[in-house]
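The authors assume throughout that readers already know how a fold can be written as discrete tokens. Each protein is reduced to its one-letter sequence and a matching series of backbone shape codes. I therefore recommend that a typical entry be quoted early in the introduction. For illustration, here is how one protein appears when written out as sequence plus structure tokens:
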Amino acid sequence: MSAVAETEVTSGPAPRNGSAHPFSAFERLVAWRYLKPRRKEAAVSIVTIISLVGVTLGVAALIIVMAVMNGFRAELLDRILGLNGHLVISPVDTPLTDYEEVAARIAKVHGVKMVMPIVEGQALATGNSGAGSGVLVRGIRGEDFVKLDSISKNIKEGSVESYLTGDGVAIGTGMALDLGLVVGDLIKVISPEGDVTPFGTTPRVKSYPVRAIFQMGMSEYDKSIIFMPLEEAQLYFNQEGQAQVIEAFVDDPDAVDSYKPLVEKAAGRPVYISDWRQRNQAFFSALLIERNAMFLILSIVVVVASLNIVASLIMMVKEKARGVAILRTMGATQAAVMRIFIMAGIGVGFVGTMAGLILGLLVCWNIKGIQRVMNWLSGTDVWDPTIRFLSEIPARMNPYETTAVIFLSLGLSFLAAILPAWRAAKLDPVEALRYE
């Protein structure tokens, strides 16, 4: 190849004596020309495209997985805290027979938005079909049932008004399906802690009409919880005139520690207070560990794509050796040559990162539609709610994490370009042009 052909990347002679500003228009032009695919450099172009695709897929995978993990945690937190109180007040020394007065005092604490006396216990439930299943019976007041938006606003069959008549129960869609129940059917509840007779304790068996069927979107709760009027639950579990605990919901669940002394003082009696973090610590710690592990594992994909950038730039340096030598003889400094190849590497990383960002955004915004398509193609539920608790794939993007992924990708692209750029800068023009 002639020297003229090799130097066609410039629109004029290269500035001499390093007079060009760093990352000047001249250097950007040369870097862009080096990245443009050419027939005779097909191998370099293919490796560059592979690098770009690798960065795109790596960034998209990181963004999508982090968004799903964040959404999964947020949805679970909303479901759990939407049903269970942020603070649980348990009696000490004596039973909670004055639960109405204690609940009224706690409700007046600033920041407490709802107080709910509860009687609950384990039981066995049977219906029209199936062998029966273990359930958790929760007895709450009618006005508290209405305030539980995660339940009262997700009634699929029956109505809240029917439940408030006080002669029936509310069950989840999962339990209704397992036991073959619809609104109006009787569900039989069996408790081992029944009546005491001279022959021992006999199980307590009682049937209740199903007045409402809810679906809160968390399979564990939809299949295992029965809501019962508080007075009926007190009779059923031999807790007449008392509550087992009082659950309090606050405005800021993350600041429960600040509410504890206020609630304890308002209770006006010896109580023990626990919060939602203590009761779910192992579960949410496992989610956090899994999220961090997925981030580290998928970061390796971006690292591998960055190594492809190294390979493509090394091949580019070999292909452009004569052109680089001519640029050096025309006055381009070693620093200018190094910046040219660094910009070429960052260019691949930047385009791949932006493409990955766009792909990740599109997938996160259309995650539910993609789930339906995958279910249709596979003929099965790819997101099994019995395993993953939630009925749909959640996705919540965190702008700070997304920004961190972008900077991670660009930083790795920069580091990957340093070695090939340094080799290009150290290229001896005499050796490169010896046989030209």
Notes: Residues 1-19 have pLDDT under 50 and may be disordered.
